Amino acid sequence: MFQRREFLKAMGAGLLVSVLPNLSYALAPAGYQRLLILIELKGGNDGLNTVIPYASDDYTRLRPAIGIPRPQVLQLNEQVGLHPAMASLMPLWQHQQLAVLQSVGYPEPNLSHFRSIEIWETASASNQYLGEGWLSRLFRSQPVPASFAADGVVLSSQNLGPLDGGARAVVLNNPQDFARQAKLAADQQAGAHSGALSHILKVEGDIRTAATALQQAPMKAPANPAEAPTAPPRAAGGFAQAINTLADILQNGTRIAVARITLTGFDTHGNQQPTQARLLGELADGLALLQNRLQAQGRWDDTLVLSYAEFGRRPRENGNRGTDHGTANSHFMLGGRVKGGLYGQTPVLAGVTDGNLPHAIDFRQLYATVVQDWWGKDARALFGGHFERLPLLRA
Amino acid sequence: MRSHAQTAIRLLLLCLLPLTAWAGIGEEAARHLLSRTGFGANPAQIALYAPLSRQQAVDRLLDHTSDKALTAPPAWVNEPFDRPGKPNLTEDEKKALQKERNEHAQELRGWWLEEMRITPSPLTEKMTLFWHNHFVSGLDKVGVPQLMYQQNVLLRHQALGNFGQLLHAIARDPAMMRYLDTVNNRKGQPNENFAREVMELFTLGEGHYSEQDIREAARAFTGWSLDKDFQFVYRPNQHDNGDKTIFGQQGNFDGDDVLDMLLRKPQTARFVTIKLWKNLVSPTPNEADIQRLSALFYRDNYEIRPLLRAMLLTPAFWQSQGQLIKSPLELTVGTLVTFDLTPPDWRALAGLNRQLGQDVFNPPNVKGWPGGEVWINSATLLTRKQFLDRLSHDAAPIRNSFIKADGQMDEAGGRQARIQRLIQAGLRPIRLQPDEWAAIYHVRNAADSARLLLAVPPAQALPEGMSGAQAIAPLLLDPAYQVH
Known about the structure:
The structure holds two protein chains of two kinds. By secondary structure, chain A is of the alpha/beta class. Chain A is built from eleven helices and twelve strands. Chain A has one domain: Alkaline Phosphatase, subunit A. By secondary structure, chain B is mainly α. In chain B, the strands form two sheets. A two-stranded antiparallel ribbon of chain B has the order 1-2. A two-stranded antiparallel ribbon of chain B has the order 3-4. In chain B, helix 11 crosses helix 12. The radius of gyration of chain B is 25 Å and the shape is globular. Chain B starts with a helix and ends in a 7-residue tail after the last helix. The interface between A and B is large, with 43 and 42 residues.
């Protein structure tokens, strides 16, 4: 018995040894060279009509007016499927680079937009008030190299969210305009200044740093679409524009650790269907465009995309063909190193009337996975407690 | 010998103290008071307030208020309008209607900004804006510019009036009822939107109510509705007459009962007092002042004027220079006020403020503009600087032609030149006139300029020997100009 166990151990060790020196992994960029792209679905996307438990009779019971008819659902398995507007994500699903995260939330959920997004963006507990974004907190203790243009860039929002409260973040709508205007942020002598003024001076410093980096990376001609491996998918609107802006600056060699893009309009209290269909279409098309462009740059394997929102929506539709604020929600993680598949718990709708859904994945588990397994940084002290990481990433 | 000198200095100081009190708050404090309670500070106004004591200055400010706008509103505000979602419209008709609404929305924004610029009662507009950011409604959801105008009239009417009356009035305000879904709140199909926000954002603040209080309060507001002309109407058949339990009390409450329950909680006075303090004084209220002021607010039955008076007379207020970041409107409209400028198109200025993050009549969400450091990020700061750079770039050339031999300013010469220019050129109102401004307001040198324009010393030292007129551009672009 004993010998047999020893033998198996030795076998196991041998196997490990032969797997460990994975050359491609050793050469791959590590730490903050790897990019995190956060997608904020502002307003609180209705996860039940995004990742649809179409096989459940309770789903049709709770959603008589706004449920997505079963034949239209893009099936992921025999239980759940995607909203029909998200067809452009299906190739990623088939290539197992799309993780569908079900029932993401946190204990004692808060149903206020502002408070709940604050909880997500500061990664606090429900009854804990933190002043700075979770990425600002991470970058304070484990800084992004000073050679980077910025810690992060923010697109389609003026709100820094997880980068608020200290990170070197620039809001970037048009890179050329930004570089030209940055000249107005003149060099200042450092000195003791009051809170309000020191904030202005800090932002001026961030602007100069980012502008200097953007200038050192001259704009290359855009890649010839004909040479791209596949033609870019159809994508229009502000979200696609933000994706293109981001892909452009990355193509120019600008180094950042994080990008956050906001897609807004998900607070669908009334007449939800057309609004959500349009937004989910923009989301899926934009993500496909992102994959396409970063693949062409050879960066897709070093890119991790994660969606988030303040909350999901209530399972039972309201009287206005819409949905009210809810709790646990579906989210997406995608990228060249993501292990595609379904994670978490498909919402259990049996017995649900007016109530909300429990969570199965704490969002801080996802953040811990990003910090520890994506960036190789220490997540232990960041979230005030232990949050089990999820096996979402390939080496 | 040395101690004699010290005694002499002490005696001298003692003599000066009453003189200082008599001499009034001075230019810096006058600029501070005007800038915080209005938009910018025109040097003529600074001269008016500088000789007054703190109390005189605050009373003068509060005695010269109005509850109506001076600027005539666009003609369409009182015209009948089509309901949004009117059935049987063709695509072209829908587009035309949307285009008209967008134009009206632009005119409405321009109208309010013009009022902020020209009003003889900037405090009224400052407080109207404060309440707009407290009782938030937004055009995106309300849809009808006429309703946003009506709400603005209400906010202005009670801007310095009574918070309790304003709360009751705003709950029945058609724009608010659309914005927070009171119109969709029916017996058996409650919509909790208004019930939640009235507690979280309008009265108590987070953590002072339960989810059950919200659910039950929503039932109390059922039956509050709008008629076909979008006027408030009570529909008894949609009202839930069952018992509700709110804050531990049980009864067949209606909406007004709920609002009265909220007003009976001292926490409401405290919540509003802290918010006003953060708006007018500093981002860090001190507990002793807040307790005293909110007790006074509660005792005075939510009268706004005495609260403001007491707040502006705290020593903390007068020591708070430079502690607040200017809002976009304080920066842009304030600069126009300071330099006697009028833009050729108010809608364009409204567009600029939208870019800077303060789109009046359309705050980002029901919580309003968070303000403070959130106003400033790399994008908004650069847009602010571009606006100021453009103003100084387009300014008239500086010739220092009104500096007299003794270093004093030729005020008469400056006024004469201004009149001449207005007669001859007429419409170049946006153009900054550094020489005239310096002459008329006795801005003899860079230090005079800094005293009128900045709340704190410039972050970048000015080159030696600059005239007051020459110092304007570098001071406008100094980071210190962003705070007050």
